[in-house]
Structures are given as C-alpha cells and as structure tokens.
Amino acid sequence: MGTSADQWITRKPLVTDAGGMVAAQHIAAARAGALLLSRGGNAVDAAVAAAFALGVVEPWMCGLGGSGFMVVWLASEQRAVALDFQGVLPLALDRGDYPVDDTLPLTSMGFPAVKDFANTQGGRSVTVPGAVAGFDHALGAFGRMSLGEALAPAIGLAEEGIPASWFCTLMIASEMAILARDPVAASIYLP
Known about the structure:
This protein is of the alpha+beta class. It has helices at residues 27-38, 43-57, 131-142, 147-160, 166-174, 176-180, 183-189, and strands spanning 15-17, 20-22, 68-74, 79-85.
C-alpha cells in the first residue's frame, strides 16, 4: 500500500532597506516597518509599525485590542530591556466565570474549551488591551518616530484595502459562523 502526503512550500519575499531589514508574518507589515527605517526610524519604530500593520492585514492575531511583549536590545549599553504590555481581566471577572466544558473539543490553540466559549467569544473573552499603550511606551522610550508616524502605514492599508491572501480567506472561512452573528463584521468579512 502506498502512502501519500500533501506538501506545502511557502515562500515569502524578503524586504530589506539600506538601514536594516524587517521580517514579518505578512509582506505589507514588513514593508510598513521598512518604510519607517527608510525615513530614519530604528528597529523599535519598525517593529511597532509592522505590528500596527499586522492589525490590519491579519487582525485575528494582532491588533489595537491586543496585548504583547517586546524585547529591545540597547546596543550602546549591551543589555536587553523587556516590556510587558499584556492585557488584564476587568476586575469584576473571576476565574470561576470560565468553567472548563469537557464535552467540547479543544480550542484551535489546544486549550480546553470553556462553557459557552466565554474565553474566546463575546465580551468576557477580551482583556483590557495593552497593545497601544505598550507600543506608545516603546516608541517614547526607545524609538525615534511618533505614534502617528508609526500608525501611518497601517492607516494607509486600512483605507486602501488589501487583497485577501489564501491564509486570510482560510481564517475568515473558519470563523464564518461567528462573524455572521455580527452585522458589522459580516458586512466587512463575509461575501
């Protein structure tokens, strides 16, 4: 008996600039970071611009309502600085508000599912966001560009729109039932 296997080869173009290089999950985000480098920005400026752009082109993994971490290498001091801008739960919530439901399959991230999907859907699934404040702090402490300059490429992408990649289409298709429940989300993401 023979075996068969699907083989996927993914290639992404490299974006470079005379002042550095930016790698990101999506080419538009890498270009946003490279644009800031070409305008005199540094690695922090490029990282923040790329993150904001990812919020437009891959909103399921990155965005204004998110949180994060950043490690900045201060070459002149030969040391690293870690920034933590994780979100926090609203004070009125408790772990008891998220009982595990063993009758449900594991989440796409491999975690146990919670009753009524309270940890992944609806108002109780979000934290108080830390991303914008964290990125703004990183720019102020370690960057050369303003928050507005770092946001500009992402704003341009949002205003102009982007073609849906195969991965974007896959992510939207996998969440169609949830997106369909919200008229605004459905009008943006569904055919």
